[in-house]
Design a protein that fits this description.
Blueprint: E1 4-9, E2 23-29, E3 35-41, H1 44-60, E4 65-69, H2 79-87, H3 96-106, H4 117-128, E5 130-131, E6 157-158, H5 166-171, H6 188-205, E7 208-209, E8 220-224, H7 240-253, H8 257-264, H9 267-270, H10 274-284
Parallel strand pairs: 1-4, 4-8, 5-6, 7-8
Antiparallel strand pairs: 1-2, 2-3
Amino acid sequence: MFDDVIIVDWSAAATPRLGKDSIWIAQATSRTGMVDHLVNCPTRAEARVWLVAAIDRLLGAGRRVMVGVDFSLGYPRGFADLLNRAVGSLPADCSAAAIRRIIGAHITDDARNANNRFEVANAINAASATALFWGRPAHRTELTALSPTHAVPLGLAPNPLERFRRTEVVSGQRLATNWQLLGVGSVGSQVLMGLPLIDELVRRFDGAVWPFDSLRASSVVIAETWPGLFAVGAPDGEVRDAWQVRTTSQRLAGLAEEEWEGLLSPPSLLAQPDDERAVVLREEGWMFGVR
């Protein structure tokens, strides 16, 4: 099914850093079931360069690659419609791919991780007149449409959308919502900073994103992974993120063909009612490994 597996632990850090809470990438090959590369990148720019070079090298060798990332590839249902009404530039289908494109067009991210994620979230809230995103540095008071807490800023309507996607409800992984950008356990900034990466990889390599796209003709397949589904805990003295990407890549690289098929067509998704599954496949996405 796949010759190599690359697992990425993405970071939304605003400055370069190594070790804990930084970017870790592991690459494992199905030929040996061993991890060939474990890299720690201090910036997203360096991580992009490494990823592109690694995928180029593997494709040049005629290999098929799975890339797993540790952030959501979609938002709770209804976000695409609100975003479309706010910016007026999404296709009529309001798909996850369209959301990636519009966010990628607005996010800036320099060589030392300085970025505008809070400004983009503030602009989306303001344009939609809805308190979708929340969580910002307390001193950024100029971002009047983005509250530092879950409070609704003056002049905005409360967020009418669900806190979690269907996959998070089914899996029980309702730990943090994509709407929260800052604070303990927050994941929303990773999503905003990660979706442009996915858009770039799809465009550069004609990649497919699971479960939104057909995988049949693609040599690069990208999926959302939850490390806790494949790597629980970490040995004493080891960076948890490094342990998780290494263990997850190794476990996936060691899968047999029928095991891949079971993960790519999980009973948990197939069991959803038709209307629920249609929303998942168009807009929300699904965590790879949720059976």
